[in-house]
């Protein structure tokens, strides 16, 4: 019976960093952000719905979604964000469920679902355990600004579009404090996996 772990956090809290550590241990990670990108590619059902709702001004020259343009809309207008979520999230859930099914057929010891909005979208039913990657807000803001080359206002708008990380602390089964070094994050990850009966090098 596979252990299904819902990995979550906040934007730029370190989910992908932890996901990469898990992949290095040959653990299957199913990434909601990756599935979300695939779901909105040209020709996909969600692609047509997004154009119908947001217009062709959110397209690049090559006809693909201009992610920066769409982001600048939805991270500043809640009703537009909810509209996009209604279009994209069902497709993401469908695609992830398919991949979970495939992974379970291979009787994998552990399957990790990297879902940024695990708690916001009430998706904890998909997982046996939830693992939060926590970071202090000022570090989160700094890392997001540096990674995405965003202004403080733009980064803050993205952070404010999610449940505060402090509120997620009480919801998760386990927490990795990612304020420190990668080495410290890895050590916490290995201990949590071991506590859950998953022993990796
Ligand atoms: C708005 C979009 C086009 C911006 O694309 P961009 O490449 O800049 O960001 P990316 O997709 O890599 O997301 C980066 C992070 O932003 C946060 N985020 C993305 N979408 C949302 C959302 N609807 N609500 C809150 N936070 C979000 C997540 O922490 C995510 O990890 C894209 O995020 C999108 O299509 N979002 C809607 C689908 C969604 O909710 N995805 C996130 C979880 S499935
Ligand atoms: N412990 C750490 N020390 C220093 N930098 C870190 C640490 N953890 C993550 N980072 C950096 O912070 C940024 C955000 O990390 P990461 O991309 O893993 O976050 P995320 O939660 O996956 O973000 P998103 O919500 O956008 O998917 C990246 O540039 C990453 O290299």
Spatial order of the strands in the main sheet? Answer: 2-3-1-4-5
Runs in which pLDDT lies below 50 for 5 or more consecutive residues are none
Q: Helical content, roughly? A: 40-55%
Oligomer: single chain
Largest beta-sheet details: 5 strands, parallel
The CATH superfamily label of the largest domain reads P-loop containing nucleotide triphosphate hydrolases
Number of helices: 9
CATH topology category name of the largest domain: Rossmann fold
Order of H and E elements: EHEHHHHEEHHHEH
Shape: globular
Q: Which ligands occur here?
A: dephospho coenzyme A, adenosine-5'-triphosphate
CATH secondary-structure class of the largest domain: Alpha Beta
Protein structure class: alpha/beta
pLDDT average, as an integer?
97
The CATH architecture term of the largest domain is 3-Layer(aba) Sandwich
Number of domains: 2
**How many angstroms separate the termini?**
21 Å
Rg (CA only): 17 Å
**Tally of strands:** 5
What does this structure look like?
The protein is of the alpha/beta class and 201 residues long. It folds into two domains: 1-27 and 110-201, 3-Layer(aba) Sandwich (Rossmann fold); 34-107, 3-Layer(aba) Sandwich (Rossmann fold). The chain has nine helices and five strands; from the N terminus they run E-H-E-H-H-H-H-E-E-H-H-H-E-H. It has a five-stranded parallel beta sheet, sandwiched between helices. Helix 3 runs antiparallel to helix 5 (78-105) and helix 6 (137-148) packs across helix 7 (152-160). The longest helix is centred in the middle third of the chain and has 28 residues, at 78-105. The radius of gyration is 17 Å and the shape is globular. The model has no long low-confidence stretch (mean pLDDT 97). Dephospho coenzyme A binds next to helix 2, helix 4 and helix 5.
């Amino acid at each position: 019976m596979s252990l299904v772990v819902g990995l979550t956090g906040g934007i730029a809290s370190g989910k992908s960093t932890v996901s990469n550590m898990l992949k290095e241990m040959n653990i299957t990670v199913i990434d909601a952000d990756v599935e979300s990108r695939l779901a909105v590619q040209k020709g996909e059902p969600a692609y047509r719905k997004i154009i119908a709702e947001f217009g062709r001004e959110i397209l690049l020259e090559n006809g693909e979604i201009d992610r920066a343009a769409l982001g600048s809309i939805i991270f500043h207008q809640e009703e537009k964000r909810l509209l996009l979520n209604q279009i994209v999230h069902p497709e993401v859930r469908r695609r992830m469920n398919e991949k979970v099914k495939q992974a379970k057929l291979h009787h994998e010891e552990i399957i990790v679902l990297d879902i940024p909005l695990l708690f916001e979208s009430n998706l904890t039913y998909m997982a046996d355990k939830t693992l939060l990657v926590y970071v202090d807000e000022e570090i989160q803001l700094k890392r997001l600004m540096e990674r995405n080359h965003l202004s403080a206002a733009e980064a803050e708008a993205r952070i404010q579009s999610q449940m505060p990380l402090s509120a997620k602390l009480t919801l998760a089964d386990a927490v990795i404090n990612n304020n420190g070094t990668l080495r410290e994050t890895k050590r916490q990850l290995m201990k949590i996996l071991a506590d859950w009966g998953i022993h990796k090098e």
